[in-house]
Amino acid sequence: MALDEDGPDVEAFEHACKTLGPKAVYCNPTLLNPTTATMSLARREALADVALRYSVPIIEDDAYAMLPRRKIPPVATFAPELTYYITGFSKCLGAGLRSAYVCSPNERMSQRLAGALRATTVMSSPVTNALVKRWVQDGTAETVLDAVRAESGARHELALKHLGRYGIAAQPEGFHLWLPVASAWSTVGFASYLRLQGVGVVASAAFSTDGNPPDAVRVCLGGPMNLDECGRALRLIAETIEHPLHPHATVM
Questions:
Q1: Which partner from 63, 67, 134, 227 sits 20 to 30 angstroms from 244, CA to CA?
Q2: Which H or E run includes 238?
Q3: End-to-end CA distance of the chain
């Protein structure tokens, strides 16, 4: 489905509903991976309206929902009878906290989903779930989240300093940025070279479903252990853009 800065193209979605009879629509409305876009309130309402008119279930993957300080109501708010709302803690509080939850449209669908999850994953870790519950109840989760936001903001400032002139898309509370590649490098060659240097970059082809990816890469800001490491990685990216190797080279 086509996207713009506000989210999925609603007209394209409605056309698909009329002509293809989709079984469901999947969306990642907050800090979209990889482009960092956040779906506007109006677009969420419009998407839900089309889904309701054509009875198309919505799978709302809101993995980054806790990060923004300014909250936008989820799509599920506008179509609760059709939406499977999914979020969790590993993307916001810590990668080791593999606890998540799903809010299903109704009790019957929750029972069916629970059965499928038991068949495929048996169960989540009781110890991890207990830890997350305690953190939420005693305020630890909010404290950690504030620290994560502050660190993300600092890394975002570094990204703007080193890569802002290249037209990046980035959000202060996000963990990645979207970098157009307009140089002698091919996108895949650019990403491959930087990964060999230990920089977390993924070519747009990894996210493309239509075989026509844009000339861009996703840069992970959360990988480096500290701001100094993050700054060095961002400087290396900028230097690689400014002084490219042969377009097909992947090693020094």
A1: 227
A2: helix 227-242
A3: 39
Please check whether residue 163 is in contact with residue 157, taking contact to mean a CB–CB distance below 8 angstroms: no
Locate 208 and state its tokens: 């493309």
Whether the CB-CB separation of 169 and 148 falls below 8 Å is answered with no
157-163: list long-range contacts, CB under 8 Å, 24+ apart. Answer: 158/227, 158/230, 158/231, 158/234, 159/219, 159/221, 159/234, 161/234, 162/231, 162/234, 162/235, 162/237, 162/238, 163/219, 163/234, 163/237, 163/238
Alpha carbons 213 and 203: distance in angstroms, whole number: 9
Q: Is residue 178 within 8 Å of 203, Cβ to Cβ?
A: no
Cα–Cα distance measured from residue 217 to residue 134, given in angstroms and rounded to the nearest whole number? 38
| Long-range contacts from 122-128, C-beta under 8 angstroms, 24+ separation | 124/98, 124/99, 124/100, 125/98, 125/99, 128/96, 128/97, 128/98, 128/99
Dist. CA 223–CA 202, nearest whole Å: 13
Q: pLDDT of 153-166, one tens digit each?
A: 999 999 999 999 99
Return the SS3 of 98.
coil
Nearest-angstrom CA–CA distance, 238 and 184: 14
34 token code pair: 């990889």
Q: Model confidence over 108-125: pLDDT tens digits?
A: 999 999 999 889 887 888
